[in-house]
Description:
This protein has helices spanning 4-11, 17-43, 45-67, 78-106, 108-115, 118-130, 136-155, 169-192, 199-221, 224-230, 234-261, 264-271, 274-285, 292-308.
Amino acid sequence: MISIEHILGDLAAVEHKGQLAAFATAGCWTVSAVAFTEAARRMGSLPLNVVRLAMALGLFVVFEGLVRGAPLPLDASAHNWFWLSLSGLVGFTLGDLCLFRAFVVIGPRLSLLMLSLVPVMAALAGWVVLGEELSLYSIAGMALTVGGVAWVILERRTPGLSPVAHVSAAGVLLALGAAAGQAGGLILSKIGMSDGYDAFASTQIRTTVGLAGFVAVLFIDGAWLRLATAVRSRAGMAYAALGACFGPFLGVSLSLVAIKYTEVGIAATIIALVPVLVIPVVIVVYGEKVSPRAIFGALLALAGVALLYR
């Protein structure tokens, strides 16, 4: 069976395959970030999470049927299902619930700043749980990248999301929970793919379980009417479809390719470039002005990524 990983292997040097996949992930998530911002304005965060994962699951069924000849991951072992399902709940359901709530409580800027800790959390967890070690170049590159990303986040505003006037301990904990969810999702995914299982099929399992988690939240929250109203928005559904393609489908799958071929901390650091890569997009789409300070932070982050390719 053909897989995207085999294609990547033909196109890129093996020693940099993970880093290239991580950079491609950041590019995909840049597109999905803008698309989901527009979709959330029209649909609300909880309905959007359900819709985007449902759309991504449909894409996986079609893609896996055409490419792998199996629309469902029936070839996955019990090991794959257990760890990848856990990863879906931790990374998709719990992590995203914490993140969207943190946006409301403490605002997007501080929430995204907390998310810049994902590479540090992932590197530490990779060292403790997986025994991954980082070179001095890698550690220096991670420090530069995280510092540059944090600088950019503190400088620029996120379109479509209003800042808040106060900082609460609960909001900070929610944002840290979102960061831990993302880092934990990557670690659990790497364990789930430790037998070499396909990254796209792995993401299909994660998406299925993550969607089930959000459906359970819908039942608890009684938000079915909000979902029914949300899907009537043609513009919202169009943006959600674009985000689903570049987010849960392509982006998350490529992130699993990345952690399969390089250390989790390195992959998470490159993926964290989204706030930097989104700068030219918001200049064009939203007409935002970017200060020299933000540009310096972006260059600092890119310099750090360059060290991760050594």
